[in-house]
Design brief:
- By secondary structure, the chain is mostly helical.
- 70% of the residues lie in helices and 1% in strands.
- It has 16 helices and two strands.
- Helix 1 packs across helix 9.
- The longest helix has 43 residues.
- The two termini are 47 Å apart.
- The N terminus is likely disordered.
Length: 459
């Protein structure tokens, strides 16, 4: 009797910890984002209140010194209401202009975080993201400047839109090559990703300085690429919402907060009541999350001009990556390798090929972020994006990514990128120095990793 060959074990469907981010976790992240926004809004309002109050005291003292009676001095028209100024400053932080600025800043970190999400789900790390962003921006600027005749000024030169597209693709290609080199070293030489990317951090930064001749590279200003992160030209019509845009913004905020409060209550009930599967509560939490997200999107859309092209590109890329991770074999392979590489190998997953593709995609997304960085600055700067990899890693970890692999969320990474942007922008508005922002970023990374470890201990 002939023996039948043992069948190759099929690749099991991803366990719950490999999901793209549970609705409960996303609800918590959305609530955290709103609370951080409100914190900085209130903090700025309080700061403005005390500054105005101190200014009024100095004005009154000056008038009294000039011989004006104290009662008349306190009723001077030069005095400003501290409450009014505080409220205006608090509201201004969440105003249209600031939302546009924060959205543009999020685009760079958010796009790079998409590639980092893939890498961290795989169980790897990439410390060279900031250097790749700088290299891509320098490559784009150098290619644009190279198309300008020698005797013509660079800033005012005209460049064909098709050549601008080629230059943008050149920056993306440069990032992909960096990722391909990293993936080759990790897979073929079996080196630790931390060591490889640490070496690439310095090597790519040096390459950026070499391409740019150790200085900023100027490029033509009037190109469509230079306006990728600019504000939209189209205005929102006032008749879109019967009560006006401000009323729609207020209603959207109230609906989002109400949905998050209801979802948080259902989440607490689900955690406390372990006697059943609570499938109904899970569905209700998802519905609450969808309502909150819809309200917040409406607030962003109607409360500001049309988003810049770069922001829409970030959203489109995020949807694409989420679809690939959720519904394709490649996505299941990425989660399987990050969860247990040995088991994935026994199941027939092509480990080396998947790793090579993931690191190449990570470099590609960093290259796209470099193009966005050039669009924001208008020049290629080899010294830009120093420490940007910390923001990118923090965004992914905050969004639910586990540094041990097997977990990650595209939506969570974008929310994490928004949180990092709001924190940096809020600290800048408060007048805090850069070293304070760096301490806050480091503390957030440590806290997020610590929470991840504690969460896995309880599982």
């Amino acid at each position: 009797m002939g023996e039948t060959a043992p069948q190759q074990p099929a690749l099991a469907s991803p366990p719950p910890r490999m999901s793209l981010g549970g609705s409960s976790q996303l609800l918590i992240l959305a609530a955290a984002l709103i609370l951080i926004c409100l914190f900085f809004s209130v903090a700025l309002g309080v700061q403005e209140f005390f500054e105005t109050w101190g200014s009024n005291r100095r004005v009154v003292a000056e008038l009294i010194e000039k011989g004006v009676p104290e009662k008349e001095a306190r009723q001077s028209k030069r005095l400003v209401s501290p409450w009014d100024q505080g409220v205006k400053r608090a509201v201004r932080f969440l105003g249209k202009d600031n939302r546009q600025t924060m959205a543009r800043q999020t685009a760079i970190v958010g796009i790079a975080a998409l590639g980092m999400t893939l890498i961290i789900i795989l169980g790897g790390i990439d410390l060279a993201v900031g250097s790749v962003i700088a290299l891509a921006s320098v490559v784009v600027a150098s290619m644009l400047a190279g198309a300008v005749p020698e005797k013509q000024a660079v800033y005012s030169a005209y460049v064909s839109p098709w050549w601008v597209l080629v230059c943008a693709c050149g920056g993306v290609l440069a990032g992909m090559i960096c990722g391909l080199i990293t993936g080759t070293l990790v897979t073929q030489l079996r080196m630790m990703p931390f060591i490889v990317t640490l070496g690439m951090l310095g090597a790519v930064r040096g390459a950026a300085k070499g391409v740019g001749d150790n200085k900023k590279v100027n490029a033509p200003e009037e190109t469509w690429l230079a306006h990728m992160l600019g504000s939209g030209d189209a205005e929102i019509y006032s008749d879109v919402w019967p009560l006006g845009v401000q009323a729609f913004s207020l209603v959207s905020w109230l609906v989002a907060l109400l949905a998050i409060v209801v979802g948080a209550g259902l989440l607490l009930y689900r955690l406390l009541d372990r006697r059943s599967d609570n499938s109904g509560a899970g569905t209700a939490i998802r519905v609450a999350l969808i309502i909150a997200a819809t309200a917040l999107i409406g607030w962003l859309w109607f409360g500001m001009r049309y988003w810049a092209i770069g922001i829409w590109m970030m959203i489109w890329l995020a949807v694409t990556v989420a679809f690939v991770l959720r519904y394709t074999r490649f996505g299941r392979h990425v989660f399987a390798i990050g969860s247990n590489e040995q088991t994935a190998r026994l199941c027939g997953v092509p480990i080396q090929r998947v790793k090579l593709i993931v690191y190449s995609l990570g470099g590609m997304f960093a290259g796209v972020a470099g193009v966005m960085q050039f669009a924001r600055l208008g020049v290629g700067d080899p010294t830009v994006a120093v420490g940007k990899e910390l923001d990118v890693i923090a965004a992914v970890v905050i969004g639910g990514g586990s540094l041990s692999g097997g977990e990650g969320s595209v939506v969570g990474s974008l929310i994490g990128a928004m949180i990092m942007t709001v924190i940096r922008f809020g600290c800048t508005q408060l007048g805090l120095p850069n070293w304070v922002q760096e301490i806050v970023t480091g503390a957030i990374i440590v806290a997020a990793v610590a929470l991840d470890r504690l969460r896995h201990r309880t599982v």
